[in-house]
Amino acid sequence: MTMTIGRRIGALSLALMLGSATAALAQRDARDDESAITDPRVQHRTYTMKDTGETLPYALFVPTSYDGTTPYPLMVSLHGAGRQYDWLMGYAGFLDRAERDGYIVVTPLGYTRRGGYGYRGNERQDELAETDVMNVFRLVTKELNIDANRIYLWGHSMGGAGTYYIASRYPDVWAGLAAAAGGGMSASYVDEDAIRHIPFLVLHGSADETVPVERSRASVARMKELGMEHLYVEIAGGDHSLFISQSTEVVGMLFDFFNIVAKTH
User: Fold this and answer.
1) Which of 29, 68, 81, 117 might form a disulfide with 162, Cβ 3.0–4.6 angstroms?
2) How far apart are CA 17 and CA 163, in angstroms?
3) What number does CATH give the domain 3-13+40-259?
4) Contact 205, 239 (CB under 8 A)
5) 252 to each of 5, 14, 75, 91, 243, how far by Cα in Å?
C-alpha cells in the first residue's frame, strides 16, 4: 500500500472522530438455514457442498447499476453467532450504501449459525465452516465480474474474529478488512505477518458487555507496532450490537473505509 493511502486513512480518521462468541458448536439443524431479510433486493440462494452433499444457503446483493461489463468491488460479510446468514444486510442503511457506492455483497452462513468460520479449532465442523465461506466466495467471483483489486472482508462479533482468521488463511485475496466488536491480532488463530500488509478498520463500542473493548484496543496497539495501515473508531457508550446494526453513521464508516483502500499490485 502506498503512503497516499496512509494519508487518506489518516484524513478519514479525523473525519470520523465525532466478537468473538464462545457458544459451543452445534450440529446443523433447520434453524441454520433460516433467513432474516425480506428486502426484495436480496437474493436468497443455495448451493450443494461437495464435502457433505448438503444444501447450504447464502445471500447476495447486486447493485442495479451492474451489467457485467465493468468489474465491481465485492464485500464478503460474516454474521455474528446465532444470527441468520443474511443478518448483516439488514443493518441500518447497509443496502442503500452498497447500492450507492456500487458494491456486490455476499453473506455466507459458515456452515452453521455458530460455526465460527474456522477460527475456533481444527475439528471437522470448523473446517466445514471455513470451507463454506470460501465456496460461496468462489461461486460469486466465478459468476460475476469482480474487481480483483477491490475484494473486502468484514464481520461483526463472531464474524469479526472470523475476519482475522479467514484473512490469515487467504491473505492475498483481500484489499481491505474490517472487524466490529470481535477478534484481535493477539489471538492464536491470527497470522499477523500474513495480514500486516492489509488495511484494517476496527470498530467497537466502549460499553460493550459481550466482547470487552480492551480486546480491540490491544489489537490496534499491535497494529501500530507492526506499522499496519489501520483506522480505529471507538463509539462512546456503544454496546455490542446496536452501535453498528442500528446506526447508518457507523455502517457508513465501513463503506467510507473500503472506498479508499484497494490493491496497488
Assistant:
1) 117
2) 24
3) 3.40.50.1820
4) yes
5) 19, 15, 14, 11, 12
